[in-house]
Design goal:
The structure holds 2 protein chains of 2 kinds.
Chain A lengths: L4 E3 L2 E4 L5 E6 L6 E7 L6 E7 L2 E5 L6 E5 L5 E5 L8 E8 L10 E2 L3 E5 L1
Parallel strand pairs in A: 2-11
Antiparallel strand pairs in A: 1-3, 3-8, 4-5, 4-9, 5-6, 7-8, 9-10, 9-11
Chain B lengths: L3 E2 L5 E4 L4 E7 L4 E9 L6 E7 L2 E5 L2 E6 L4 E6 L8 E9 L10 E6 L1
Parallel strand pairs in B: 2-10
Antiparallel strand pairs in B: 1-3, 3-8, 4-5, 4-9, 6-7, 7-8, 9-10
Classes of the chains: A mainly beta, B mainly beta.
């Protein structure tokens, strides 16, 4: 158990809908990262937050947005969903400071199915 | 050329074999190197972490970095069926996030 929690585990929704994925980082970690992994594909980095502020942006679609709250949990919002958005969404956290500030610990993921 | 490349596999080996998993990269500024293991439909888990060139051993696992060739290897001795997973290499440069490779799928047959 990495200490990173994600909810829900599974999500089934229809095209055009909007969903919110939630992530709680490991205790003490300030950075949160979001990744998308389609079937048999590699991890695609979406976005990183550090202590409430956006730190880095990857290949995140405009229909997707994220935020990190004062208690450091993060939410990833996906809107106007398309069939191609079906994937595993992982959250990872890292300390964000100190010698191991970049070591990422991953949550179990949320499996999104868009029908 | 992608920044980090791995042979996607699958690599199938018999139980007890020595496995060599490899990763090449193009960015000479990479200094820190991670290996992650990902079981099917699970989150990646941190396996090993090395800095700069050289070897690092942890139990049955050995990570090797050759910065001159931009080549990273992960060796698994006495491989077990429980080692069957996808292995991701992830290098980074100083002050930047890790960049994940696409992973190599390993299957250890009993």
């Amino acid at each position: 158990d990495s200490g990173v929690t994600q909810t829900p585990k599974h999500l089934i929704t229809a095209t055009g809908q909007r969903v919110t994925l939630r992530c709680s980082p490991r205790s003490g970690d300030l950075s949160v990262y979001w990744y998308q992994q389609s079937l048999d594909q590699g991890l695609q980095f979406l976005i990183q937050y550090y202590n409430g502020e956006e730190r880095a942006k990857g290949n995140i679609l405009e229909r997707f947005s994220a935020q990190q709250f004062p208690d450091l949990h993060s939410e990833l919002n996906l809107s106007s969903l398309e069939l191609g958005d079906s994937a595993l969404y992982f959250c990872a956290s890292s300390p964000g400071r100190g010698a191991f500030q970049y070591e990422q610990y991953f949550g179990p993921g949320t499996r999104l199915t868009v029908t | 050329q992608k920044e980090v490349e791995q042979d996607p596999g699958p690599l199938s080996v018999p139980e007890g074999a020595i496995v060599s998993l490899n990763c090449t990269y193009s960015n000479s500024a990479f200094q820190y190197f991670m290996w992650y293991r990902q079981y099917s439909r699970k989150g990646p888990e941190l396996l090993m972490y090395t800095y700069s060139s050289g070897n690092k051993e942890d139990g049955r696992f050995t990570a090797q970095v050759d910065k001159s060739s931009k080549y990273i290897s992960l060796f698994i001795r006495d491989s077990q069926p429980s080692d069957s997973a996808t292995y991701l290499c992830a290098p980074r440069e100083h002050g930047q996030n890790f960049v994940f490779g696409p992973g190599t799928r390993l299957s250890v047959l009993p």
